[in-house]
Amino acid sequence: MAALYSGWVTRAKTLPALWLISDARNDAGLERALARLPRGSGLIYRHYHLEGPERLARFRALRRVARRHGHVVILADSALTAREWGADGIYGAPRSLWPRRHGLLHLATAHDMGELGLAARLGADAALLSPVFATRSHPGGATLGPVRFQLLARQAGLPVIALGGMTRHSARALGWPRWAAIDGLS
Hints:
Layout: H1 2-14, E1 18-21, H2 30-36, E2 42-45, H3 52-68, E3 72-75, H4 79-85, E4 89-92, E5 105-110, H5 113-121, E6 126-129, H6 145-154, E7 160-162, H7 168-174, E8 179-181
Parallel strand pairs: 1-2, 1-8, 2-3, 3-4, 4-5, 5-6, 6-7
């Protein structure tokens, strides 16, 4: 257990506290949002609405802006594509991140304790646990709420990033050190 805890602390120290997640609905403001983030924040590039060369071109444009501001750039795709495109890591469901690729950050999506546990067992560097609060992405959907989020996150066995309805205000109210947003930062 001490070795597991030691690895968790090491990963937590190198992990950005603030993450901007790209989406079709925030695309127009991403360059401005990246410029406003504190140096050393992170970008998770999804852009599922784009395909092939158009997706790659948009990734490269945003990666240039992100790098200029010292941000980490994560790609929602395979490890092979992340390496080819020059990303710092990959993002997806825990099983999609396996096998572990050294030299890349692995950020897993999670919605419950089972997915958090799987992410930890498969060696993810962190998990984005969601949805904490109501979101435009899933109107009327169930949320974890602050109490359940805190309970799950504290038992996760890996660093947890809060996602879902997150803004600077909700992050302060939640009192959690790491959070990500789509609309709340763009």
